[in-house]
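Before the break, one more example. Copy the sequence into your notebook; we will annotate it together after we see the structure.
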Amino acid sequence: MEQNKTIGIIGAGALGILYGARMTQALGQSRVFFVADEARAARYGREGFFCNGAPCALRVVTPAEAAQPAEAKRNGLWHCDALRPQTRFGAQPSEARLLARRCRAQASNRCEAAAFSEPETPREYAGPVTLAIFAVKGPGLLESIETMRPFIGADTIVLSLLNGVSSEQTLCEAFGAAHVLYAVAQGTDATRVGTAVTYRNEGQILIGSGTGQRTPDVETAQALLAAGGAPVVVCDDILFRQWSKLMLNVGLNQACAVHDVPYGGVQKPGAPRDTMLAAMREAQTLAAREGITLTDADIDAWMQMTDKLNPAGMPSMRQDTLAHRKTEVELFSGTIRRLGQKHGVPTPVNDWLYERILEIEKSYTGISPSAS
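Here is what the structure looks like once it is written out:
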């Protein structure tokens, strides 16, 4: 793996922070960074990033900074004369905390230049990334495309971790279809509150070309993610995997949100579990109309996976409703409803879930910023 291959991530939600922190630790801040607009970058700097209680030193670059001449930018970690509680890259880096302790230990609280080594993070960045990862929520996709655009080159591989089965088409329309891959993130129980993520199961990132072929882009993305320590698996049947995950989401995400329960609420008999199963069966029926075969064994496998999740954890939609954020209801029951209308198939459970989730959103006194 060439050392100049880079990863740009947009979306500091549960998946973005979880995998971004892992890959930053493995590849370094010179090769992995988050992309954010000025407002979000400032917020990240104030709040910092945390993963399972530990602060994460994550690099953040804005589109304006990417467009500036490399020699004019100063985007690296700060030196002794700039020690402060946060940086624009998130929580105070461990290296800086160590240096701060060294400073305080010295007489008259002065720091000798020799005590400081040049930080790993480069103070400049210009040019497109090798791999652009979209880890935003559905409502924020169009905005995130424009934010990420300065980092997309002719050969940049584009990967979406969004739920549902429609984000790839949107990305193809924005950047062209030549280098857009298909992906599914599954099996994680990561929960985000602000910029703090907790998880027990990191899950997997499944990727594929959508044609069943292992293209050079698939091989490059797989190698780069693996080098970063991300749990990546190449799947020749990635479209089936996406539809299977959609079936899970219309059940698990929406049942937990509407019934206001964590995973534990659907891990035992009762209304939440019944709702989850009924919604999944509607998705199963409509997947068949779209040429994707989802079996009862697939539903059973998802239920077994669900039963192994941290009972106190919660899916992204319940996290959104608790935080008064816009949900991905259009990607879940919205998709099922539209397909039901297309094929003349009734979808009473997803109709009810859709209406109920919209009611929950309307009850917010204010809508919080998206997870990106």
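Residues 7-96+121-234 form a domain with the Rossmann fold fold (CATH 3.40.50.720). The radius of gyration is 22 Å. Try to locate both features in your own notes.
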